Amino acid sequence: MNDKNFKALPIQLSDKLIGEIKEGNSLFQKPVKENGMPAFVTPINPTTGKGYSAMNALILGMKRHDDPRWMSAEAASYAGTYVKKDEKGTLIEFPKTKDIQAIRTAEGERIKDGAGVTQTKTVTYDKPQQAKSFLFNGEQLKDMEPLEEYLQKQNESQTLSPIERAEKLISDSKAVIIHGGNEAYYDKQRDAIFLPEMEQFENETKYYQAAIHQLAHWTGHESRLDRPMGGKFGSLEYSHEEMRAAIAGILIGGEIKLGHNFGQQASYMNNFARILKDQPFEIAKASRDAQKITALLLGINKKLEQKQGAENNLGFKKGDEIAYMDNSYKVLETYKTKNIKVEDASGTRKIVKPTDGLYSSLLEAKNNPREQEMAMEEEQGQSQEQSYKVGR
């Protein structure tokens, strides 16, 4: 793999999502496949029994396999299974905290024992390093345990139905839910969720899917995950929060086997595509926030921090050199207005403002917070109404 010609994984994911949105078959738009199965199946490592980070789960889930099992070719061989001929892996990335390296002499030669075995040492990094891996789905592997048998074993300990799990999730949240009217939305001023009566929905599943979507918005309150939730209904700013809730709905629906249904998808798709085009690294941020939403609502991490202040990105400094989208940018000047002057690899200079999509994308690339994205296993009038209703 030639890193110079390699697009960062969030950019690849953004490009693919844009294509699917234009075709009308993204996970946001088509929650069920032609065979009647859920479009998103929560990926799992069958060896460890653990899941993947939100962004990786999206990448893998977008392959639309019915089999949830994913592992590397090496891990598959250890498990006694093998990759079928001509199958292609799916690239993910993850933070690596340790590495096993060969012990070498001062001249760089490997040190071996009497049996000729290279001696190794475990190196712990000061901060996580980006690592990449190609994974293969259970449908791409031979000699796998039949899917039906595997799923039966997985579900043996689960005594609650998806509807019952959804009811429990909502009850455990202690969120205020007021029924009535024809809209489903979260009122951030009153910190309450408003839902139509269940009878107004096509079925129970659709009701609970809508409730979970609004619960995702509910987590953004300052007393919980404290996310920015500004902007009027349908605005580009508003759509950033909708993207987070939509991804969280996908993840939660997959986990409790309820499925997801982003009912207002038609109102947001153009904005989603625009965000992904102008700020491709936003998918990494949105995925991380969606993972926090999921963890909070499912109770995966009871010690989850309630504030995101520690994640605020550092600003730019004069002399910063940033690789982004097959180009490089050097920061020539920084200004009190927070504007920056940059020069790209071709020598073109420009002033970039904080309101520009390039600004946030460069900031994301500079700080590369994807290194922090640990996988789950690692631990009144219309205008007024639009200002506080979230997630209609």
Automatic annotation (TrEMBL):
<protein>
    <submittedName>
        <fullName>Antirestriction protein ArdC</fullName>
    </submittedName>
</protein>
<dbReference type="InterPro" id="IPR041459">
    <property type="entry name" value="MPTase-PolyVal"/>
</dbReference>
<feature type="domain" description="Polyvalent protein metallopeptidase">
    <location>
        <begin position="164"/>
        <end position="288"/>
    </location>
</feature>
<dbReference type="Pfam" id="PF08401">
    <property type="entry name" value="ArdcN"/>
</dbReference>
<feature type="domain" description="N-terminal">
    <location>
        <begin position="12"/>
        <end position="105"/>
    </location>
</feature>
<feature type="region of interest" description="Disordered">
    <location>
        <begin position="366"/>
        <end position="392"/>
    </location>
</feature>
<dbReference type="GO" id="GO:0003697">
    <property type="term" value="F:single-stranded DNA binding"/>
</dbReference>
<feature type="compositionally biased region" description="Low complexity">
    <location>
        <begin position="381"/>
        <end position="392"/>
    </location>
</feature>
<dbReference type="Pfam" id="PF18818">
    <property type="entry name" value="MPTase-PolyVal"/>
</dbReference>
<dbReference type="InterPro" id="IPR013610">
    <property type="entry name" value="ArdC_N"/>
</dbReference>
